[in-house]
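Researcher: Quick one. four chains, 1380 residues in total.
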Amino acid sequence: MYFASDNAGPAHPSIAEALIRANTGYAMPYGADVAMERVRARLREIFEAPEAAVYLVATGTAANSLALATLAQPWQQVFCSPVAHIYEDECNAPEFYMGAGKLFPVGEGDKIDPAALAAAMGDSAEISVHNAQPGPLSITQVTEKGRIYTCAEIAELSAIAARAGQPTHLDGARFANALVALNCSPAEMTWRAGVDAVSFGGTKNGCVGVEAVIFFDPAKAREFELRRKRGAHLFSKHRYLSAQMEAYLADDLWLDLARRSNARMRMLADGLRALGARFLQEPQANLAFASLPRLMHRRLQAAGAVYYLDGSVEGPDETPLQARFVCDWSLPEEEITRFLEIAAG
Amino acid sequence: MYFASDNAGPAHPSIAEALIRANTGYAMPYGADVAMERVRARLREIFEAPEAAVYLVATGTAANSLALATLAQPWQQVFCSPVAHIYEDECNAPEFYMGAGKLFPVGEGDKIDPAALAAAMGDSAEISVHNAQPGPLSITQVTEKGRIYTCAEIAELSAIAARAGQPTHLDGARFANALVALNCSPAEMTWRAGVDAVSFGGTKNGCVGVEAVIFFDPAKAREFELRRKRGAHLFSKHRYLSAQMEAYLADDLWLDLARRSNARMRMLADGLRALGARFLQEPQANLAFASLPRLMHRRLQAAGAVYYLDGSVEGPDETPLQARFVCDWSLPEEEITRFLEIAAG
Amino acid sequence: MYFASDNAGPAHPSIAEALIRANTGYAMPYGADVAMERVRARLREIFEAPEAAVYLVATGTAANSLALATLAQPWQQVFCSPVAHIYEDECNAPEFYMGAGKLFPVGEGDKIDPAALAAAMGDSAEISVHNAQPGPLSITQVTEKGRIYTCAEIAELSAIAARAGQPTHLDGARFANALVALNCSPAEMTWRAGVDAVSFGGTKNGCVGVEAVIFFDPAKAREFELRRKRGAHLFSKHRYLSAQMEAYLADDLWLDLARRSNARMRMLADGLRALGARFLQEPQANLAFASLPRLMHRRLQAAGAVYYLDGSVEGPDETPLQARFVCDWSLPEEEITRFLEIAAG
Amino acid sequence: MYFASDNAGPAHPSIAEALIRANTGYAMPYGADVAMERVRARLREIFEAPEAAVYLVATGTAANSLALATLAQPWQQVFCSPVAHIYEDECNAPEFYMGAGKLFPVGEGDKIDPAALAAAMGDSAEISVHNAQPGPLSITQVTEKGRIYTCAEIAELSAIAARAGQPTHLDGARFANALVALNCSPAEMTWRAGVDAVSFGGTKNGCVGVEAVIFFDPAKAREFELRRKRGAHLFSKHRYLSAQMEAYLADDLWLDLARRSNARMRMLADGLRALGARFLQEPQANLAFASLPRLMHRRLQAAGAVYYLDGSVEGPDETPLQARFVCDWSLPEEEITRFLEIAAG
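Model:
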């Protein structure tokens, strides 16, 4: 009964097996492997972006930090949600990669409000040399609170950035979960909505450790390659990153896995709602924040359920305590059933 | 007939299979996996260093850059060979991780000369605030030219650094190859010889992509952890790094693989010498620089042999041209035999 | 009628003349001049801090950035007001000098709220390696909105920082203006209230361009010196910084000038209040934010008064528009009288 | 008898008086002062470069570091002499401002050898992502050993850089001393010889503390302004920088002062040569390295002469010991006469 994160489960067997299949003979190192050629072609096809620059790295923080550093200058600030992963959970990695840039937290919530963004980006005519200069917008899709921007919402935000002369980055650590929930195409959720660069997550959705970074305009491709090497993120035995991504994309596995984890969350959320849980916001993908009575939490914890609590389970039985639940692709339905039975008492 | 690098071969099957074995159920992320506990214990045992801080990263450049940044200050310079990997082949990654520190190339050769080092580190009484301040020493073992420092040589160099109040780092991307050639213990080649931190390579010697960083004094352990996260090198699904390293260390696989690649190089070198090749320096591990007649190179290239040439193969038949040869663990003996037959003409 | 800033007026004649007096013969460069010895001794005396490390730089941003960089680590965040000069007006200089650290804006106002600070610094037991780590507190005294922290307020905030193991920096670009308003001693406003390092401003209060940085604990003195040189802020002809600061401190000139500019602001504020102006907050030092009718602004602008407006003067005559007024030491009383007469219409 | 440096003498009275003249009334801060308009126009005229971007900073290290950072990328290396000020005497400031770039020491001497430069810049077709990428060339004029590049030599070096697609920076901390020695025009010594950016020194040649940075192509002007602010080198009371530079340029004072210090050095060198001194290289500007008998040094030191010695004066009377001598503009002829008399014994 593990609901703590989607980075603690195993890789999908197809992906693990792909590593074994890749493990034969010599292969050109440092991204010159032929599998990378296929990955690049496939991602361009999936995104309907035949010119896109496509790279692989092993961690989501690397994908975000390198993408933002390539889009931004050190005297700029990146606009993001105050609960964005880049703002709260990367130990100043984006600032480090940007060469000491700044992240500006827009508004209060997990989804960036267009009016707040427009106000924060300001009137560039008034930006003096004393201020941090306006830089890129970074949107987190799925948000850290489990919500999803519609394509229209992304387009509205990216248009505000574009009016300030700035590009838009999409942190898609859970790209697939958002995509299947929206039932749109990758192009619709990205470049057609004004997104310039994407961190396309694999690790949380069934890979061992691989993320793609995609720039729809390849003008900065060489700069990204140099930044990746300088950041020590260029793998010598790159074929093992390529193999993962190739298997991830094959036969729509990436979409299947996301549908699976989203469905698990719906099953969990429906069950919890029936038990009276209140949700911070309606779960749309594979994570949710729900308030349950402390007594219920104590039963679940005693039975070995693993998830994050926003406080102590000690306290009056019926007082609510919020928790975060994440379902990964590998979570068995029976575990949810068992979890709900224990919760029901 | 692939002699271009030891990062283009496959992982040893035991290591690949370890990834599959690790691929089941949930595991604590970010280095809190139980396999990492075992890896830490095993490396402490191997190094006879029960207090050592032990970490895993996926690339050699990350290991070196993070280790040096943890030992150095941004206003210092790291002393190294002018052909060191950190100086020539990491696209300013050490400088980046050090926060804009400097690397000072000592002398001319691949092995650092003690007198040149003593002169370069200078009389710290004379170092003013205007100069880059003396920082750590970094020794590359095996050197980029294929030579090996004896334990006594390492001790002599580290003593010079220690007299200047500076620690010593050992870039052991080919740690095992040096160790088996010296026939000494890991402790003898490191902390007993005055080494403070080691980049302990796995990738070039049969892993998929894993390097350990070991600090014999754990005082800076927390700082390293923060630097690793900030550098985006902390893996969420860390178990797959642990699994590789665990399999690498099991049953002395790491030593067997190094013996194998060193032996392949001896076979190749003996064969080439018999054909009249001249060596830049006597090969001691698994790489060598040898001069062969251009005609011989042309025959080899035509037959599909892959290795780096230091110039064009065009030219008078008998004129010599230097080439670099590297043997990895997976290189079949028959390939060497075939290579030598073609070379012989 | 210049009320735009206290950095646009001239230096006090005593300070300018000190430059001339210093301009004779040879003097040791780079801070080894004998005048610096006297400055150091005098500041230690004024602050009742015989061990303090004392340095001079030429700009306030240099003083703040170098002080914070010396106190903080790159993976930390500095806690400050969201309208602090370091947050809004230094174009990422603090982040740059910190080696890509972060500034965390606490709460909403110009004065940091203790409860908000305690919440922001958090429970360090919960800080994981993923988060920016807690770093120093930086207090701006006088605030950017013209208010002053009492010594007790400073002590309360610094105690919160100390509980989190963090030092406190005081940005005293207008140190003297606060001090004379509080009528306390420099020691009371700083180290006795838990402040560890001070940017002690001279430029805004009658100097040509000089600020002192004072560390009450000299442990990091050498590090500061290296950071200053590395930041290109170590003057070769340092005597001209020393001469300014010496003249500034002589015969309590610094206090006289601050009393003068504060008094000018009181005169201006009293006059504006009599004309119906509303103040954002009661002016306590030499700057104020006041709302006046647009008609009044138009008259003043037409007459050549210079100050910052928070919007356009176009609009209905009686609608209020906020403006910022700053009085520097050199502002003649007659200019205020004339300004008020014009304002009165 | 002060020959230690040209940064320990006073400012020329005209320049000090200009500070006093500037010290009246209000002036626009942060470089918007009208005096800066005049300085910009005058420097454009002097350099015959009507489009040039012109800025002022207070230290030579700031001028060099900001200029190089504006021309280079963090993954590049700047090519310079191994005894260049930027390489040896700026405590990693250029690396810091470049965002962790590298300086590559070309050859052995103070003057860069064209063949060594061409070899170091390499064949860009062979530069892989692993290497530091080629960056700007930086030439020090006058060199740290007192020699001067001819305009043709500068042109030859800058052409090599240009062939590699790289710009050329000239560190002209002693620009005027070189110019009057060459008897050429500023344009001939810079942009006509392929120089893209100049650090135009004032401090060593009679100013209080001011250096101009000049970009002949203004494309990066805005970036420089942001870098200057971010580096904390933008003066609020900028008029005092402008006033210095304006007085420095007025009536060819800058050239007169350089002629004076060069002439002093010739007088000193002629006298020392007559006493048997041997020069490291023929002095061309205002600094020289000369070997004198230890006995002579002991007499001079006993009499209070100040200059840098390359070792201890203890030793056999007639054994030579090298010393560095610098003449600044303010050095009285009588001091040189007295020095030579003492030296003669």
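Chain A touches chain D at residues 30, 73-75, 99-100, 129-130, 133, 223, 225-227, 229-230, 234 (CB under 8 Å).
Researcher: Thanks, that's what I needed.
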